[in-house]
Amino acid sequence: MNKYQAVMLIAAAINLLLMLLFPPYDYVSYAHGSVPNFDGFLPVFGDHPNSAVNDDFLAIEIFTVLINTLIAWLLLRDRARLRRRLDRQNLVLLGVALNLLLALLFPPFQDHYTASKALLPSFDGFYFVFGDNSMRVIVAAMLWLEVIFVLVNGAMLWLLLERPAPRELTAAEQFALSEELLGRPVRRKT
Question: Is 70 among the domain residues?
Answer without folding.
Answer: yes
